[in-house]
What we know:
mainly alpha; Tetracycline Repressor, domain 2
Amino acid sequence: MGNREKLLKAARDCLHEKGYRRTTARDLTTAAGVSLAAIGYHFGSTEALLNAALHEAVQEWGERLECALAAGADAGASPAERFAAIWTQIISSFETDRPLWAAQAEVLVQAQHVAELRAPLTASMAEGRSGLAEVFLPPKAEGNIDDTRARLVGSLCQTLLTGLVMQWLIDPHQALSANELASALHILAEELA
Length: 193
């Protein structure tokens, strides 16, 4: 394993153990067994390294979610049952991947104050919206998803995900379950109709 890979692994471990704000360059280099100069050489800055590690972790979460959804997919499920099944998988990841979600929350707050965080976070959010749209909107018969629908549904699901994560990190017992989320959206849809 090269220094770059060692640093990424160390960054993921430090994010898990210490969080985003409390992880220092020294923490990273000590955990990786490399010099401080290695961070600059491979990533440019400590923040860039942490962002790369966080992005990698979120991508892996998305891949695990896709696999879990594919394995548990019920071809005969109604759209409401499918929605609840997807959110059940997502919500269960909050416990499994709690350090990831806590670090992500820290980054969201920091992005307000650190301009260098906004660009990669914006790109990551766009990728997330697209991925969520693919999960929640099955392709039409012609095999593609309408861009406007995808943006709207992906953005709404990302908003729900972010809100649920925040609630869950603070008070998981009061956060909505997948079925409660589906019921709440159904109530709102009736009110809007």
